[in-house]
Amino acid sequence: xxxxxLQQEQPATYLxxxxxxxxxxxxxxxxxxxxxxxxxxxxxPRLPDLGRxxxxxxxxxxxxxxxxxxxxxxxxxxxxARRVLARVVLGGTWQQKDMTAFGFxxxxxMEPADGVLYGFDVASYKTTPDWLNPRFWANPELWDKYxx
Length: 148
Fold this sequence. Notes:
By secondary structure, the protein is α/β, with parallel strands linked by helices. It is 28% helix and 23% strand. It has a six-stranded mixed beta sheet.
């Protein structure tokens, strides 16, 4: 999965936070930059120093306190990453509904002990609904009939 993402995206900047295993942080045969790495505990305060990343891989999120994990995911999603991949073991602290609430989509199911891979891409996280266009908002045929 990660190999496909790296081949498709070709990220200029790439950050690994925590333990991404079993996802290889730099799969063999992939050209590009070696990823920068941070521990989960010290990642949030260091994000401003690193700037915006094209791809961030987060692993072992369940080992963080829930509030710290929420802050990390929301900062990555909103400010510091264009695309985020998060490997989470569901059950205790994190549930599927929690990841969905943060706007992440389920990408792959791994071995039960390895968790689930979720992804967030700022370019495609929300599709534009059909009703959100000028066709439904402007009614020129009613402009002379009613006074609003």
